[in-house]
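To close the section, here is one more complete example, presented without commentary so you can practise reading it yourself. The ligand is D-glutamic acid.
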Amino acid sequence: MKKDAPVGVFDSGVGGISVLRELVKILPNEDFLYLGDSVHAPYGTKSLEEVRTLTISHIEELLHNGAKAVVIACNTATSAAVAVLRNMYPEIPIVGIEPAIKPAVLARPNSRIVVMATPMTLQQEKFKTLLKKYENQAEIVSLPCPGLMEFVEQGDLESEDLKIYLTNLLTPVLEEKTDAIVLGCTHYPFARRMISKVAGQDITIYDGGSGTAREMKRRLTEAELLNPMEKTGQVTFFNSLDTREERELCEFLLKAEI
Ligand code: DGL
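Output:
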């Protein structure tokens, strides 16, 4: 495997760019190939089989394009396909993402934590196992958010409609005193400002982006695959929705203030 090959990053759409931002910060000398599947998004309301098949084919696309390692920057795709992919490609570092319940529980033991994620992520065995591990250390409430990723796919990070959607979604669950919210979908960090506005400043918000980026750095270091070049790496975007608007949205989200 070539050290100067790019790192592949995959998501159902543009959400994984919230993870890519962390990767670029922590691995500034790596090149990244970002692949989004906005044509088939959302994944979170599809069947397990559909998401697994789509994810495997897109990860293979990244590998055929020369990726030396892959980040599945999508909680939904990770829960559906990471185990299968690791079996298929044991020699490739493959890092997935999961809702950041661990850091939230460690920082706020015995608290009430709301996990926002897609319906599919919350239904999967992987999530149930994660929940079991921490359920004695905090009150963890699952909140499926069908429809939320669509705002981000449209580049809508602060409209009145988004505010109304979030108010309707969060008000009932936040009636009980809540300490933290975990953003268990990589699209949601782009709506973080609005989520915080609706939920209130006292609630701490966690996401898994930086932990996932650190894990990729560890894996590349371990496999001796870090790019030795001292030049700044490049990001190349691919999307199944191959339009100018989509490319502009990707560039915008990579740099947007969130
Ligand atoms: N960004 C994805 C995640 O982290 C899912 C969005 C979707 O396709 O439903 O779960």
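Once you have examined the tokens, check your reading against these statements. Residues 11-13, 15, 41-44, 74-76, 118, 121, 149, 185-187 surround D-glutamic acid (CB under 6 Å). The domain at 101-207 is CATH 3.40.50.1860 (Rossmann fold).
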